Structures are given as structure tokens and as C-alpha cells.
Amino acid sequence: MKVLILGGTGAMGKELVDILSSSNNLIYVTSRKKIKSSKKNIVYLQGDAHHNLFLKEILKDKYDCIVDFMSYTTSEFKEKIDLFLSNTKHYIFLSSSRVYADSKIITEKTDRILDVIDDEEYLKTDEYALAKARQEDILKETGKNNWTIIRPYITYNDNRLQLGFYEKEIWLSRILREKTCVFPKELLNRKTTLTLGNDVSYAISKLLLNDKAFGESIHIANDNSNITWNDILTLYSEVIEEYKKIVPKFHLLDKNKDLDKLVSKSYYQYYYDRCYNRVFDSEKLNKIIGEKINYSNKLKECLIKCLEKENNKYTLNAKFEGILDRISKERTSLSEFNTFKEKIKYLIVRYTPYYYFIKK
Prior knowledge:
The radius of gyration is 21 Å and the shape is globular. The protein is an alpha/beta fold. It has 15 helices and 13 strands. The protein has helices at residues 11-21, 52-58, 74-85, 113-116, 120-123, 128-140, 168-176, 197-207, 229-244, 257-262, 267-274, 283-289, 299-309, 318-328, 340-351, and strands spanning 2-6, 26-31, 42-46, 63-68, 88-94, 147-152, 154-156, 180-184, 191-192, 194-196, 216-220, 227-228, 249-253. The chain has a 7-stranded parallel beta sheet with strand order 3-2-1-4-5-6-11, covered by helices on one side. The chain is 39% helix and 17% strand. It starts with a strand and ends in a 9-residue tail after the last helix.
């Protein structure tokens, strides 16, 4: 196959490139940075896939498949979709399982948040879960069916390890600096699903040019997972204590104004996803690809690899550090912030009643 992967230098994209290139497919990957390929059947195309001129240029050569890892606004996607569908036999659109509303067991027939929610303020936004659902609708309204909607959920590898609504650059950074990580108490018993990025990429590779996948929405999420965020928090703590000799400290936060401020940047993700139980049924995927994926359980292994290469040289977010220190009654040295502006922002958030007015 001749495959174009848009935005294919991220965690899932890199693994998909490795999987497809090992079978002697010809792979083209867009990247804003100049990358020199070490394999003859992988070609990196330098440019920004958000720009239509760049897209039109690279799409002069048609592709068997386009796998799209890019994130668009809804208006931007509407402008591009005809260009994609007209220049490939099979277009793979990366949506998200965040589109689903609350449900005991999630199947592809589960209601989407966009279709059932009555939060008018939220519906006015183009937040990630709503944007993905609206872009799914745009695809379905094209009158074509040479597309497949893929809905991954939380993925992990040794570079990405989430804890609730935190990326590792926040929670792991605090723990390795022997500071307290603040975690919402209400999430502890929420069920969640973590899927190894390589498993998602393998499933995508099985869907390319698969007739049964055309015009379908399919989620790819570990259906063997029945864990809570408390289980994950415990696992992380045990591994860090064993390999770094640091006993992680957590402050469990009840629902209050501090919690709302803490999750303000991820408010809708928190309340319309992380606060739900997320358990998936993968029967549709299994039928389409003709096999049951043996989902990996490598969370501990990936955390160990992450710790082995961790240098903890993160750029601290002054607002976030200030809120976390305010709640945990800790302090961060001003020398850890890069600019005078960041130092002032930290001091305001940490020590004054005006921290609610700091937006970024």
C-alpha cells in the first residue's frame, strides 16, 4: 500500500509507521520538522498539514490510504474533507472515545455527548469531544463512504502516562521533586481504560482498505481493563518507591472551589469524561478485523522505562504550581521558574486571594 500519515510523528503515529513499513508498504509522513528517514520505504514530507497549499501539493500523488492524526477546528475540517476523500481510496479519521456520553458499557451505539447533553454553555464551544463529534457528522454528510472513524481512548507508552486529567509532565514532575500531587477524591473509584499505543496502531493497520470498515465508526480501547484510578495511583506509587526510593505524597481533594480552579483548563474533559466510568465492548472491532486483539498490560513496564530516562527538566506552569502548592501548603523556589513574569504569577496564585483571576 501507499499510505500517507498526517501528523505521524506522535506516539501512535510512530508505531503505526513502524508496523506498516515492516510489511514493505510505502509510507509518507508529514512533519513540521525536517526528518531524515533511515528506511527506503519511509518518506518524511516537511510541512504543516493544517495548510491547504501544502496538502494540495502532497495530494497530487494519490494514496491508497490516508491516516489522519491531526487535530482540527470544526470549520477547518469542513474545508478539508473533500480534499481528503477525493485523493484516497480509504481515509482514516482519528476521533476519540471522549465523544461518548456516560454509559455502563460503551459500544459504538452508545449515545454521544453532543447528541444528549443540555449544557448550553458547553455546546457553544468547540471543545475537543464536541469538535470530534461534529467532524464525525461532517464525514457522514459527505455522501461518500471511503472513510472510517476511529475512536481511541486514553493511550499510554513510556513517554505518555496519564493520571486522571494530569499528563506526566505535571504529576510525575511533582512526585520526583518530592512534592505533593493533588488528586480529586471523587475519581478514585471511577473505572477507566488505558490502552497501549502500539495496540491501537496495530488495530488501525488491520483496518486499512478493509471493506468491512468503510463508512463505520469503531472504537479501539482495551476491553480487558476493569481498573480504577485508585488502582493506577497505587501502581504508580509502588513503582516509583521501588525504583526511585521516593514515597509519593498525595492530597485527596474534595469537591470545592479549589478543585474547579485546578481543573479549569480541563474542565469539560474532567466533568464529561474522567468523572464517568469508562468500560468498553470491542466486539465490533473484533468482527471487522477477524481477530480478537490481545491487549497488552504494560503500564508498569512503561513507567519503569519512563523513570529510567526521566531527567525531570520540565518547564513549570506557574499557575498550576501555585494552585497545587496553595492546596498542599507547599512552596516552589522562584529559581525554578524561567521568567520574572512567571515568578510574579506564581506568587499571586500561591499567596493572594486574587489567584482566581489568573486565567493562564
